[in-house]
What does this fold into?
Amino acid sequence: MARDMSEAVNSSTMEVAEKEPSKMIPVTKRLLFLLNCILFTVGSCGGPLVLRVYYLHGGASIWLNSLLQSVGWPLNLIPLAISYLYRRSKNPNTRFFYIDLPLFLASSFAGLISGSGNYLYSYGLGRLPVSTASLILSSQLAFVALFSYILVRQKFTPYTINAIFLLTVGAGVLAMHSSNDKPKGETRKQYAVGFAMAVIAAILMGILLPFLELVYKKSRQQVTYTLVIEIQMVFLFFATIFSTIGMIASNDYKDIVEEARNFGLGKAKYCHVLVWGSVSYQLLTLGMAGVIFCGSSMLGGIMFSCFLPIVEVLAVVFFHEKFQAEKAVSLGLSLWGFLSYFYGEARANREMMTNNEPTTTTTSSPNPIANV
It folds into this structure.
């Protein structure tokens, strides 16, 4: 009987723990934020560059490229297994997965959005230089802001609004002068379709980030980082299903062996490109989920755009792409927008500390380093 009472108490404790607000000491949250920033940076810069290598040396499957952006989902099992072993050492009755049915369904829907966006972005990346595609995708920040306001009632400072405006105008400058950047052998129609696909992908990204934040906020469970990884794994799994079905329906899978044999860098390098491409995008999505967990979807959108200058430089260095005056203007506006946003965040944090206010901020995207 005593054993039964002990198990009941343990079970009750677990249920309460799942519903209580997540509590994390400041040092742990800062380290978690920095770790996810590193993952986000490596994935955001490495993913587009690695997959561009795929296209430059003979790769042609849009669906395969799309699949690579989500097929790395089993890598999430590694941190989940570590977390499970740690929890099990404290409580033998702990479960491996905590995600409930409503969260599972919401994550599945997010996966379908992600899968659609992956395909559209892959199509655009195949028709555009990586620098141009990245600059177009930077317009997602405006859509992140719009849907953040609609879905999670995000509040904005003048500095954030200025940053969004500058980043959007920067992408617009590129769009108005993009015809001179058309790759050799590609028709105007193909380039225009690729450009449109990249813009739609930016819109879907703008929906996805606030939607994930909404999922975290509306969850009936305690939103821990372990649960965030579970949500991440589910939505990537469904994005993989979406791309796999598309690949089968289009018969793209039949050309993989021939494509590998004719790949410009050799069959071994072909496999390396596929593996490292999937790993890079897995790091990107995992880092993105962690940044939203530590901060907000608006912060994730800003950081996603912040990596644009790095991708620009790497694309010019490694692929010898043109760096025209329009790109320089767009890049300058983007940097101006980044500085405006971070200046506003720093100023808001200083005012909060000066006024001795609670750690809850009303700026556009809570600073996870301050909000602990």
About this structure: Confidence is low (pLDDT under 50) at residues 1-22, 357-372.
